[in-house]
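batch job 7 of whatever, protein = PHLP1 phosphatase
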Amino acid sequence: SLRFLNASANKLEMLPPATLSEETHSILQELYLTNNNLTDKCVPLLTGHPHLKILHMAYNRLQSFPASKMAKLEELEEIDISGNKLKAIPTTIMNCRRMHTVIAHSNCIEVFPEVMQLSEIKCVDLSCNELSEVTLPENLPPKLQELDLTGNPRLALDHKTLELLNNIRCFKIDQPSAGDASGAPAVWSHGYTEASGVKNKLCVAALSANNFCDNREALYGVFDGDRNVEVPYLLQCTMSDILAEELQKTKNEEEYMINTFIVMQRKLGTAGQKLGGSAVLCHIKHDPMDPGGCFTLTSANVGKCQTVLCRNGKPLPLSRCYVMSCEEELKRIKQHKAIITEDGKVNGVTDSTRILGYTFLHPSVVPRPHVQSITLTPQDEFFILGSKGLWDSLSMDEAVEAVRNVPDALAAAKKLCTLAQSYGCNDSISAVVVQLNVTEDSFCCCELNGVPPPSPGIFPQSVNVVIKDRPTDALGMPSSSSGMASEISSEISTSEMSSEVGSTASDEPPQVAMNENSPAYPGEQRCMLHPVCLSNSFQRQLSSATFSSAFSDNGLDSDDEEPIEGVFTNGSRVEVEVDIHCSRAKEKQLLQVPVEASDEGIVISANEDEPSLPRKAEYSATGTIGRRRGNGSVAPQERSHNLIEVATDAPLRKTGGYFAAPAQPDPDDQFIIPPELEEEVKEIMKQHQEQQQQQQQQQQRQYPAEHLADYYDTPL
């Protein structure tokens, strides 16, 4: 009389015979054998169950499924043979006329099976295989609703096939990725999957944005509407926009997450949606004051959607479910005189006391999420977002252990969904797996007083870094070995001016010994991202952006600017010197940005002021920070680590124009002054410097430090 048997998640290597004698016949209809150690030898024994309708043999050790055995399972309606090592699905699957679901992801299938010949077929999942082409009949099966071909890197579809497949209600295929323009390895990658429940209604939704707001943030979410289809879709379409708006108002993780859920609650009410749903959001961001520093993962959830982080192979829960069993929630609900039914639900509607929607249950049911933030470390491997159906079927320990050794995020998400279904889940399921690659170079441990060993960074490193002696009141002078053709001093020898382009990064070893007494902040231990800064030195890094000087050869840069007398420049590149040591705890420190003017272009150097300097010194230098740039735009007053970003944000010009610097110096471009005019030119330059100083003094009197002008006109 056995009709249903679930023997998943064991260590079975063999199956018993279907019957003990020829007189008895098996009437088994559903057999679940997922996550065992079954081999090909077990397949012939399945033929003893001719009335089998549902067969799940995912994540075993099958290498083939004999065609003759498949032909005898004529009543089969659903088969799941994912996670094995199958290279093909037998063509005798055509004998299974009632087959409506074929799930065979995470195998080695190279040939597209004959499933499209089945008239009753509804769902086909062939993701994460090795398909190279798809063979389709002239007319697709009339009931086909879902075809998943993602994770097949060799798959190439022609235009005609794509047109035909686009008629399917849910057709999934890999989108061509643009890749990372910087060439840096990705810090995170994700895969997600959704599966409908018994009633064929997809009541879950997933959100994934690898490049949220900018290229160094990500947002992931899972939404579960229980039996409602509309609510998850509304949350999926709306919450990312709300979070982006809240990020503009506050940078506090708990504040912007709570505000996001409250605004979403208001929008659900405005839309007239009385039902509700669970939600979990995970936001990865970096410190805005330290773009090269740590990444923070912030998780917020209501209802039974949850997140778990795998750190050192162990699960670290980041979510919390607020239900009647929570004493503080039970006390709060009783204060509001709510009715608690025998099945532990508020007014018989929901057992979650914090969930989106259900506005008619307010104030007993509220949308305030549980928020938890954590700094990502190199020990963090991945994190999982799952809907209620996933966590009802799998514990967090089981989920982490199941996908820890799965290298592909999509295959990991598929595995979680398959395991949950094989373990008896009949609800809609959604799972998102985000794999992390946080290297030690992107993990700041300054606050932990630890210095991790060096390792390749996630972002391009500078070509050369050198620490040099620098007087407090002197301008940043190029190294003598930098290859510059001109030197700048109090008396400029104009006969030495040329347009030779050279690197400003010295190849010499560091000239300043770093000892325990020399740091500006004694007693601090710094990580590789934030080395200790010397009070009389600066770190120099080559900018990744190369520009020309602020003026073209004819002295005109744009239509609205006139040439300035006494300034001799040629097309060359701008190099930015930036002190990027950790100053998170010293935000009140001031910046001083002196600028060197030479025929080489503009050299900007930035380091922190001495504490004794007055505030006016911050604006005494004739730099481009907070002043007019050569292209007519105004650079805002920013901190030192943003100088490179300001340079890279400069507008592009067409070839041969503003940003087209000559690759090699042209002898014809050199400006040579006859000896008889040398004294006269020196005098002109001296007069110009005096005028410049007078203008600065006048501007300081006219615009105090509290009320700065939008820009300053300077020779640069």
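notes: Residues 675-702 form the longest helix (28 residues).
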